[in-house]
């Protein structure tokens, strides 16, 4: 996809581990997961508002 190989990916993960430390990584991952869930909820809410519901008369 981005042309990133296995070695480059491992290097990036190692740098992230060094920068954040092993104690902060679970918190960081949890925060990213919560962000993704809130984003999905928000996008679903936008989709619900855009689709008109048929009115019974």
Automatic annotation (TrEMBL):
Gene Ontology cellular component annotations, sorted alphabetically: TAT protein transport complex
GO biological process, one term: protein transport by the Tat complex
Topological type in the membrane: Single-pass membrane protein
Keywords: Cell membrane, Membrane, Protein transport, Translocation, Transmembrane, Transmembrane helix, Transport
Subcellular location: Cell membrane
Any one GO molecular-function label of the UniProt entry: protein transmembrane transporter activity
Subunit architecture: Forms a complex with TatC.
Family the UniProt entry places it in: Belongs to the TatA/E family.
Primary role: Part of the twin-arginine translocation (Tat) system that transports large folded proteins containing a characteristic twin-arginine motif in their signal peptide across membranes. TatA could form the protein-conducting channel of the Tat system.
Protein name: Sec-independent protein translocase protein TatA
Gene behind this protein: tatA
């Amino acid at each position: 996809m981005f042309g990133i190989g296995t070695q480059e990916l491992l290097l990036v993960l190692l740098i992230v581990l060094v920068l954040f430390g092993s104690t902060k990584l679970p918190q960081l991952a949890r925060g990213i997961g919560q962000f993704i869930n809130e984003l999905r909820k928000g996008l679903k809410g936008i989709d619900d508002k855009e689709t008109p519901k048929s009115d019974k008369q």
